[in-house]
Design a protein that fits this description.
eight-stranded parallel beta barrel; TIM Barrel; binds alpha-L-arabinofuranose; single chain; Immunoglobulin-like; 2 domains; 542 residues; alpha/beta
Length: 542
């Protein structure tokens, strides 16, 4: 029996920890059931869960943009101004807060002027970030912003620091955000959009240690500083490029060298405040992908994987928590007041390339992906004091997608359903939780079987997300509410008989959430059973 405290204060909610542990282990029963005790500290509300944690990522890659979003005005696929309507209505339903675009590695080769003006005059180029795929530039700035407007999301632009310049990035932002009276604003108006666009988030480079310029952290810190001079503007949040997973030195160097414009005392002198921007970094970013194990070269197949590969995937996903703890500890040193956030700008599962896949980095999405999504989002919630944004890679037809398309057909993936179930947490107040449960053990992997987060929404409704990562055993959960009582409760669950259960074009609704029956409510205590390999969202009406 292991006790996990999803609480920054690290104090146990049980009056006597050992008594709790003994009580919990006394519940341990036959191997076929996990005994679990969850405590939700409704009396100790934490920070708000930023809705932007539910952000997405769209890159020109495979059929992520072309076909996935853009079909063109003349397409027989129903569309509004070239943007397919089935995808738009599915995305509206899950309340997408923001979308990062145009990449990824593609962003480092992207020149925005190629994607504006009459389509028949735009240059046809090749996407050398992704195997020289043809790039028509039919989907450019205006189409992206139109897509965002149709789905109700905000823009997170990733600007080019490898083949672009601070000047080019500045002109792009001026083109987008200046009034139509300005020269660049007038160009935008001539291209059909007199009103300025809003661009609240700008990422300065993508993976600048790799495809984004092959830089050292120290060199990038200087590049970042130069881009801040060109791009800083009121209300615009600047995101520094991306520590590779557990590269803590990257974050440390960046904060040390790029956080302050001048010395702190110089900046804090009131007369000079107008030339200072403190901090210069609004968010630091992390990129981290899940595969089965830690070897990029040996990825697990999407379907037909083994129980060991399931376990290795869970282990790797669980490292998200450790990374957030360690990157946050570095931030705490430089920014104890927590003004700087973490943007988890790329996350998700990356499985082995399937030779028969219809396009680059297209992968099926199974129950394993759903469990990974549920677990990762819970981890983000539990770090809501620092994680202010995240972008799953990627939205459509690429890696861990929400949506798969085949011509006119569309399938919603198990990951989509997790985002749908979890949207109740967007903007809600985190409630700390404590979980005492048997471990899930498989070979050398031993992890807490249940991964949990809880929040309270504006109406006072409490939602508890419970992910059971054990593919064999259901969990008998006793849930205690500290500081409140439940009047009623209901739950929705996503599960299936097999680990690689999925939706496809012939069976698009094989895996959809259903009601979880048999919840027992008694004041401040609830009892429920969550199935093996499942994602459950419990709704408690106080
Ligand atoms: O999401 C696919 C690729 O993964 C992105 O282009 C890059 O940033 C990352 O390495």
């Amino acid at each position: 029996m292991r006790i996990v405290k999803n609480d920054k204060s690290k104090k146990t909610f049980c009056a006597v920890l050992t008594a709790c542990a003994l009580w919990a282990s006394a519940l341990a029963s036959a191997a076929s059931t996990i005994d679990a005790h969850i405590t939700v500290a409704a009396d100790k509300p934490g920070p708000k869960i930023d809705p932007n944690i539910y952000g997405h990522f769209v890159e020109h890659l495979g059929r992520g943009v072309y076909e996935g979003i853009w079909v063109g005005e003349d397409s027989p696929i129903p569309n509004v101004r070239g943007i397919r309507s089935d995808v738009v209505s599915a995305l509206r339903k899950i309340r997408v807060p923001l979308v990062r675009w145009p990449g990824g590695c593609f962003a480092e080769l992207y020149h925005w002027r190629d994607g504006i003006g009459p389509r028949d005059k735009r240059p046809r180029t090749v996407n050398s970030a992704w195997g020289d795929e043809p790039e028509t530039n039919a989907f450019g700035t205006h189409a992206f912003m139109d897509f965002l407007e149709q789905i109700g999301a905000k823009a997170f632009l990733s600007v080019n620091v490898t083949t672009g310049t601070p000047g080019e990035a500045r002109e792009w932002l001026h083109y987008m955000t200046e009034p139509a009276e300005s020269a660049l604003g007038a160009q935008r108006a001539a291209n059909g959009h007199p009103e300025p666009f809003e661009v609240p988030f700008v990422g300065i480079g993508n993976e600048t240690w790799g495809c984004g310029g092959n830089m050292t952290a120290s060199y990038y810190a200087d590049v970042y500083r130069a881009y801040v001079s060109a791009l800083a503007a009121p209300g615009r949040r600047l995101i520094a490029s991306d520590a590779n997973s557990d590269d803590y030195d990257w974050t440390e160097t960046l904060l040390e060298k790029a956080l302050f414009r001048h010395t702190r005392s110089f900046m804090e002198s009131a007369e000079l405040a107008y030339i200072s921007r403190w901090p210069q970094i609004d968010m630091v970013s992390i990129h981290f992908y899940t595969f089965a194990g830690n070897d990029w070269g040996k990825k697990s197949p999407t379907l037909g994987f083994s129980a060991g590969e399931w376990a290795d995937s869970m282990l790797r996903t669980s490292r998200t928590d450790e990374m957030l703890q360690k990157h946050s500890a570095i931030l705490d040193k430089y920014d104890p007041k927590k003004r700087i956030g973490i943007s988890f700008s790329e996350w998700g599962a990356w499985w082995a390339r399937d030779e028969k896949a219809p396009s680059n980095l297209f992968q099926q999405n199974t129950l394993r992906d759903a469990v990974i999504a549920g677990m990762t989002l819970n981890i983000f919630h539990n770090h809501a004091d620092r994680v202010k944004m995240a972008n799953i890679a990627q939205m459509i037809n690429v890696l861990q997608s929400m949506i798969l398309t085949r011509g006119k057909d569309m399938v919603l993936t198990p990951t989509y359903h997790v985002f749908d179930l979890y949207q109740v947490h967007q903007g809600a107040t985190l409630l700390p939780t404590e979980v005492a449960a048997d471990d899930y053990v498989s070979g050398a992997v031993a992890l807490p079987a249940l991964n949990v987060s809880a929040s309270r929404d504006e109406k006072g409704v409490i939602h508890v997300s419970i992910v059971n990562i054990d593919p064999e055993r259901e969990a008998a959960v006793s849930l205690a509410l500290n500081g409140t009582k439940a009047r009623s409760a209901s739950a929705r669950v996503l599960t299936a008989a097999t680990m690689d259960a999925h939706n496809d074009f012939d069976a698009p609704e094989r895996l959809v959430p259903s009601d979880l029956k048999g919840i027992n409510v008694r004041g401040d205590n609830l009892k429920l059973k969550v199935p093996a390999k499942s994602v459950t969202v419990l709704k408690v009406q106080p």
